[in-house]
Amino acid sequence: MKAGTIEIENFRNHTNTTLACAEGVNAIIGDNGQGKTNIVEAISYLCLTKSFYASGDAVTLKIGEENFSIRGFFKGDNGVERSVEAAYEKSSGRKTISINRIPVESMSSVIGEFPVVILSPEQAGITNGAPTERRKFLDLIIAQSSKVYLRELMEYRRILRQRNKVLLDAKLARRDCSEILEPWDEALVETGSHLTYRRRMFIEEFSRDVVRSYESIAGKSEKPGISYEPSIPTRNADSIEALKSVFTDELRSREDEERRLGVTAVGPHRDEVGLSVNEINARKFASQGQHKTLLIALKLAEVAYLKDRCSETPILLLDDVFSELDEHRSERLVEQLQGFGQVFVTATDLRPFPVQFPWRQKNQTITISAGAIITKRKSRHAIAGTGN
Question: Which residues, other chains included, contact 97 with Cβ-Cβ below 8 Å and sequence gap of 6+?
Answer without folding.
Answer: 49, 84, 85, 86, 103, 104, 107, 110
